[in-house]
Design a protein that fits this description.
199 residues; four-stranded antiparallel sheet; globular; Tll0287-like_dom; signal; Tll0287-like domain-containing protein
């Protein structure tokens, strides 16, 4: 190869390398998302998925079309999974997957001041305070920092509302329900999202 061709090839290779390097983002200079923004974004996805499943699957097939039941004993009854169970199954899978991804550590759960399943009652002061706050302040979220097991967490609580008639009838008619006067749109509990923070 002649010297001119070699110089041209080297110049093109250098330009390609420079372009490739400049296309890689400098992670150190990227904006950092706040725990609140992360929690809010996660909640938008969770709430959207939960609402779609409740309205388009459970409410339509159980209440409207009456083709199948939804049951907490869905396997034995050959029924649909309840929306709260679907949410818990997702939460458990996220917990399993994030164990392997320490940079993506977060947890979430569905809780209530009036839980049908006692496992879903608040376990910390922050959870209880948050559930009370979202129940008393419709449309507002609750945010705090709490320390658990020597680690600090940003904790957010979002209202979980009755988005379909099937929510109301299930909670009001269930034998273990501590409250039986829910109406469509009522706050029935809350989604608790916990993100570890430094400091």
């Amino acid at each position: 190869m002649s010297r001119k061709k070699w110089t041209a090839v080297a110049a093109v290779a250098g330009l390609c390398t420079a372009a490739a390097v400049s296309a890689v983002p400098d992670v150190a200079n990227q904006p950092v998302i706040s725990p609140k923004a992360m929690a809010d974004a996660l909640h938008v996805v969770m709430d959207s998925d939960r609402t779609v499943y409740t309205r388009q699957i459970v409410n339509r097939l159980v209440k409207k079309d009456k083709v199948i039941e939804a049951s907490e004993h869905f396997e034995d009854d050959k029924a649909l999974v309840l929306p709260a169970q679907m949410f818990r199954f997702g939460s458990e899978l996220v917990a399993e997957r994030t164990e392997k991804l320490p940079d993506v550590a977060f947890s979430y759960s569905l809780q209530s001041l009036w839980p049908i399943n006692k496992q879903n009652e608040p376990k910390t002061d922050a959870e209880k305070e948050g559930l009370e706050y979202v129940a008393d302040n419709k449309g507002e979220n609750f945010y705090t920092v709490e320390e658990l097991g020597g680690k600090k967490y940003f904790t957010a609580v979002y209202a979980d509302t009755a988005v379909a008639p099937v929510c109301v009838s299930c909670h009001n008619d269930h034998k273990d329900s501590p409250r039986r006067d829910f109406e469509l749109g009522d706050v029935m509990g809350g989604v608790v999202i916990r993100i570890p923070v430094q400091g």
